[in-house]
Amino acid sequence: MLYIVILFLFASITLYFLLGGADFGAGIIELFTSDDNRHRTRKTMYQAIGPIWEANHMWLIITVVILFVGFPDIYSQMCTYLHIPLLILLLGIIARGTAFTFRNYDAIKGERTQNLYNHLFIYSSFVTPMFLGIIAGSALSGQIDPAAKDFVHAYIFSWFNWFSVAVGLFTVALCGFLAAIYIVGETDSIDDIKRYIKKAKIFNVVAVICGGLVFIASEIEHVGLSKWIFGNVISLVAVIAATLSLVLLWFIISEKKNRQWIRLLAAFQVSMILISVGSTRFPRFVIFKGGSSMSLLTDHATVNTIDDLGIGLLVGSMFILPALGYLYYSFQRKEK
């Protein structure tokens, strides 16, 4: 049952990144859109993420619940040493959701308040995935120092370092790329399709550059990312699969073939990136400075708790997944 719980944990993290990441990417694209096209972009983004923007955070809630109930020691260590980026992440989620709602349903819709909501939505869409990546980079890179003697080294430098910030920027670029690719299949306007393909290419290039920065920062901080990625068979296969899927994705776009396939390819590519990193660190979930770590296979709750949690997740998925599928189906049919 422990492996079932772990499977749900990683599935929730992956789905939150694929769906919630594209959700954040909508605001990132809006941030880098000219004033002339911003209103049209905003309308298209709203049609795309409107049906699912709130449901996306279900995966984050499931992740938190699994950690809190099934792995309380890991949860407490992360909330202690990474409480600052976690707080910024949560504030960004709240600010973004509030702005997204009020800028569309505000009864007054004055220019001043609309500008406030727009800026809040755009910048929180950038900050939130940035700190999501920072948290992930900090947990897996051995930057957390449990032996630190002062506040700065314990609670600031554990996440405010070159590697974690580089991972944060890489996460932002991936979110923008996902959103642009998803939107290509959402609009029928030739001009909009060309515009979003151009943005997808730009974010693709930025993601590659940020990925390079991650490797450079890894060498500076002595994280050893190259050894993670290229010293593990599963990780290496995942990297190759991600590269091939990217090539196929741009071939389909250039040949103007079925644009719906590019969404699956983009999601597959990002999933392979997550697998390439996660497989090298499994079962370790938090790595401390000095080499010690916390493992999902040993630092978990009692057997009875894990069994109950696993049963709850299995039963809950029987209700949640069909309902979520019907949600997507309903809104796609409504648009048609």
UniProtKB/TrEMBL annotation:
Keywords, sorted A to Z: Cell membrane, Membrane, Transmembrane, Transmembrane helix
Output the InterPro entries linked to this UniProt entry: Cyt-d_oxidase_su2
Give the UniProt subcellular location, in the record's own words.
Cell membrane
UniProt-listed Pfam families: Cyt_bd_oxida_II
Q: Which residues form a coiled coil?
A: none
What membrane topology is annotated for this entry? Answer: Multi-pass membrane protein
An example GO BP is: aerobic electron transport chain
Asked if the keyword Cytoplasm belongs to this entry, the reply reads no
Say yes or no: keyword Transmembrane helix present.
yes
Predominant cellular place of this UniProt entry's protein: membrane
Q: Which GO terms describe its cellular component?
A: cytochrome complex; plasma membrane
Membrane-spanning residues:
6-32, 53-75, 81-99, 120-140, 160-184, 196-217, 229-252, 264-282, 309-329
Q: Name one GO molecular function term.
A: oxidoreductase activity, acting on diphenols and related substances as donors, oxygen as acceptor
Could you tell me which PANTHER family the record lists for this protein?
A: CYTOCHROME BD2 SUBUNIT II (PTHR43141:SF4)
Q: Which family does it belong to?
A: Belongs to the cytochrome ubiquinol oxidase subunit 2 family.
Q: What is this protein called?
A: Cytochrome d ubiquinol oxidase subunit II
Organism equals Mucilaginibacter ginsenosidivorax
